[in-house]
Amino acid sequence: MTPPPDASPVSQALILIAEDEPEIVDILAVYLARSGLRTVHATDGRRALELHRSLRPDLVLLDVNMPHVDGWQVLSEIRHLGTTPVIMLTALDQDIDKLMGLRIGADDYIVKPFNPAEVAARIQAVLRRTLPGAGRGNQHVLQAGPFHIDLDNHEAMVEVDHHRRPLSLTLTEFNLLAQMVRAPKRVFSRAELLTTCLPEGDALERTVDSHISKLRRKLEEVGVSGVPVGIRGVGYKLWSGE
Questions:
Q1: Are residues 177 and 123 in the same domain?
Q2: Would you put residue 113 in left (φ > 0), alpha (ψ -120 to 50) or beta?
Q3: pTM for the whole thing?
Q4: pLDDT tens, 138-162?
Q5: I need a labelling partner for 94 at 20 to 30 A (CA). Which of 11, 156, 204, 214 fits?
């Protein structure tokens, strides 16, 4: 039985488990229920994408070796649609597989066999990072510093002198800002930003620089200077320091 909800912002979050092995699903569902989390299950990649679109889960626990559509394709499609946190779950343990998952935009990577209690703990850690103080009705609003990003309504606001001001951003600029607001001090490589935030037709990493430059100018126009921060030879992060 699922325990009653508590005061935690991650309580009652919905987790999509995309896994084709029923024994693993059953074990994970039990441990996640003990943590107050709700679960829904997809046995193949195609169904996982359908449930992601219709249910808008708070997090996807995604196996790589899925029937019909593999986990890499599912992850790529989820990243094109938005910023739903994704934890990869796989028997593969090569560094190249981990790097591929992180490059496409995975938030974490768990190798089988695993401790289900650890999986539950890592899911909660990602949720605490991506749903700060949010209840079930507003978990799709990202906040960091002066930035407020409403993913549902595709609105970006910045607070300047105690007043929220709307930002007029292109789709790519909005995606770049949202990606960095989720983890303000994390450095995102150009390759990662290219994969997760830019249209499929853009294939040059330097294209990211152009979009970042335009985003930076728009932020300067409303009184926010020096962000995003460029890290020479690596990529960008929202800001430095605390």
A1: no
A2: beta
A3: 0.53
A4: 447 888 889 999 887 788 999 988 8
A5: 204
